[in-house]
Specification:
single chain; mainly alpha; two-stranded parallel ribbon
Length: 192
């Protein structure tokens, strides 16, 4: 069960004091807040920023979408925790950039214009990566074609499906291009 925001704050202040820090420094206290949900439940915000920036960008971006025009319900412990994480993390320009990139990757755009959003080429569009003549890009696309056990709903799954769809498009068949790679199988998230 999630702790309420007061409990989280008091625990964070106690941690700051135990480390010899000043509990009146808001950013320091926020860095010691613990995440109250998800795969990293119990980890501090500081730890989260040091270890999984993309997850932080996802959390903040989805929280911003969820609260857009509504404000945050501070009575809901999970919403309050997400708001505190957002306040702490967006103080860093690198995190703001990642959140912006996440928002761009979520935009409804024609399939090929969507950003890859992960891996070696997160800022490339799917189409540019697929159509690239650069040896490393071709190799990466070939690698993705061979992936048979990708997570259901992941960016890797959507990119792999895009590649396979392009491989089997009528234009490809007209040119005599085919793929012998097996179709990607997806595994659903378990317990999420």
């Amino acid at each position: 069960m999630a702790k309420n925001s007061k409990e989280v704050e008091e625990t964070a202040k106690a941690l700051v004091r135990s480390e010899g820090g000043d509990p009146s420094v808001e950013r320091l206290v926020l860095s010691r807040f613990s995440i109250q949900f998800g795969q990293y439940k119990g980890k501090t915000f500081k730890w989260l920023l040091e270890n999984d920036v993309r997850y932080v960008a996802y959390l903040i971006g989805s929280h911003q979408n969820e609260t857009e025009g509504k404000g945050t319900n501070q009575d809901n412990p999970l919403m309050a925790n997400k708001e505190s994480l957002s306040q702490y993390a967006t103080a860093y320009p690198e995190i703001r950039s990642e959140v912006q990139r996440w928002h761009l990757s979520q935009q409804e755009v024609p399939d090929g214009r969507q950003l890859v959003g992960f891996g070696k080429y997160p800022s490339m569009t799917r189409k540019k990566l697929y159509e690239s003549k650069v040896k490393q890009h071709i190799s990466y696309v070939d690698y993705l074609r061979k992936q048979v056990d990708v997570t259901f709903g992941s960016k890797m799954e959507t990119l792999t499906l895009y590649i396979l769809k392009r491989d089997t498009s009528p234009k490809k068949r007209e040119r005599g291009w085919t793929t012998t790679a097996p179709r990607a199988k997806c595994k659903k998230h378990q317990g999420k």
